[in-house]
TrEMBL record:
Protein name: Membrane protein DedA with SNARE-associated domain
Membrane topology label: Multi-pass membrane protein
Any one GO cellular component localisation term in the record: plasma membrane
Coiled-coil stretches: none
Pfam name, any one: VTT_dom
Primary location recorded for the protein, binned into one broad class: membrane
Database matches in PANTHER family: ALKALINE PHOSPHATASE LIKE PROTEIN, UNDECAPRENYL PHOSPHATE TRANSPORTER A
Cell location: Cell membrane
Transmembrane segments: 12-30, 50-72, 140-160, 172-193
Upper classification of the organism: Bacteria, Thermotogati, Deinococcota, Deinococci, Deinococcales
Domain of life of the source: Bacteria
VTT domain location: 30-160
Record carries keyword Cytoplasm: no
Alphabetized UniProt keyword annotations: Cell membrane, Membrane, Transmembrane, Transmembrane helix
C-alpha cells in the first residue's frame, strides 16, 4: 500500500494527493495516516511545497465527504424513521430512536463533524448522519474543512519532520484506529443487548 501511494504521488504530484484523499473517504483501507505523511516527506525532500500539500489534503478530504453526505441526505430522516418502525425490531430500533439521534446531531453535530474528522476509523462515516440530519451544506463544509485541516497539517508535518521514517506515523496511528473502531463496535453491541433485555422484560 505504501509503495502504491508513493508511486501515485510521484507520478501525479499534487493531483495524486487530492485523488488519494478523496478515495480515502470512500475506501477507508486507503488511510490518510499513510498518504499525508508520505506527502510531507516529499515536501521535506524538496519535491513539493508543504503548504500546497496540506491544501490538497484538505481539499481532497472535504470533496471526499460529499458522496456520503448526499447519500444520507437522499435517504433522509423520515425514510429512516419509516424503515425503523417497519423493520427495526430485530435491531431493537424504532422511529423514536432515530428522531432522538437526529435531535442529538442537530445540537452537537458541528462538534461531531469538527472533532470527528480527526478521529481515525469514524472520520468518513460522520458524513452520513450529517446528511440525514440535513446539516446545512455551508456549515458542514466549514467544520469539515477545519477538522480536516488540523488533521492533514498534523500528519503532513509529522512526515516532514520524520523524513524517511514517515511510515512510523501510520504504524503508530493504525492501532489507535483499531481501538476506536473496537470501542464503537463494543458500544453498539452493549446498546443492542440492553435494548433486547429491556424489550424482553417488558414482554
Amino acid at each position: 500500500m505504501a509503495e502504491w501511494v508513493q508511486n501515485l504521488m510521484d507520478s501525479m504530484g499534487y493531483l495524486g494527493i487530492l485523488l488519494l484523499m478523496i478515495l480515502e473517504n470512500l475506501f477507508p483501507p486507503i488511510p490518510s495516516e499513510l498518504i499525508m505523511p508520505s506527502a510531507g516527506f516529499a515536501a521535506a525532500r524538496g519535491d513539493m511545497s508543504l503548504p500546497i500539500v496540506i491544501l490538497m489534503g484538505v481539499l481532497g478530504s472535504v470533496i471526499g465527504t460529499l458522496p456520503l453526505y448526499y447519500i444520507g441526505r437522499a435517504f433522509g430522516e423520515e425514510r429512516l424513521v419509516k424503515w425503523a418502525d417497519r423493520h427495526g425490531k430485530w435491531l431493537t430500533l424504532s422511529g423514536k430512536d432515530i428522531r432522538k439521534a437526529d435531535d442529538w446531531f442537530d445540537k452537537h453535530g458541528t462538534k461531531a463533524v469538527l472533532f470527528g474528522r480527526m478521529v481515525p476509523g469514524i472520520r468518513s462515516l460522520l458524513s452520513l448522519p450529517a446528511g440525514m440530519s440535513e446539516m446545512p451544506m455551508p456549515k458542514f463544509l466549514i467544520y469539515s474543512a477545519i477538522g480536516s485541516g488540523l488533521w492533514a497539517s498534523a500528519l503532513a508535518g509529522a512526515g516532514y519532520l520524520l523524513g524517511e521514517n514517515y511510515d512510523r506515523v501510520e504504524r503508530y496511528i493504525s492501532p489507535v484506529s483499531k481501538i476506536v473502531l473496537g470501542v464503537v463496535v463494543v458500544a453498539a453491541v452493549v446498546w443492542f443487548l440492553r435494548r433486547k433485555r429491556a424489550q424482553t422484560a417488558r414482554s
